Amino acid sequence: MAASALRAFAVAAAAWVPAVAGCSTKDVAAMRSDAVKDGFDPAAFEGFWYEHAYIDPAQVGASCQTLNATLNPATGEVATDFSVRYGAVPFTIKEFYDPVDPATRGVYNKHVQIPFNIPGGSLIQLPTAVVDVQRSSDGSRYETMILYSCLALVSEVVIATRGPTLERESLQVLLQTAKERGVPFKESGVSTVDRSSCPKAAAGPPFQEPQRLAAVAV
What we know:
The chain is about 20% helix and about 35% strand. The protein is an alpha+beta fold and about 220 residues long. The model is unreliable at about 1-20 (pLDDT under 50). Keywords: Signal.
């Protein structure tokens, strides 16, 4: 049943065609923070992430969302294994972020490798921007991220951190940052990830809450 539903969604996704003004790489590039525009480092983006909040019709019915990012230093492409559970069924989709221009940091065209060997995933390009990131206290990696993608009438927002939990106040700070950067969304449309029944995931170093979030959570 789950496989049939996912296969149907993949076929539908392959038929989407970008056709809306305001959804181009130039448009999403305008949403980036100065930290991204001036110094985004994709190497600091690598590794394991926990999604905490999202707007994405493809995630309806999903839980336990995580991402594992890998950088191809030769091309600048970032590949992520986006893993979820539909009920008790684990499911992973491969996402690829191709840089638009090395001089325009944090702006990509995103495409997916559709499961079940269904062709066409690479034909659908979603303009995507890293809206904001915050580094760890030791500067070795990013600890939080906000991503925005768009396609036709669909907008996608992803808020993720390195840790499996995130205080509500800290989430509100990240949502407010997205709003201030011009990401078009309503908070009523934001879904949060419940990890109460998720299996323990293998991850990297523990989450180091950035100073801006830690100050709010106190």
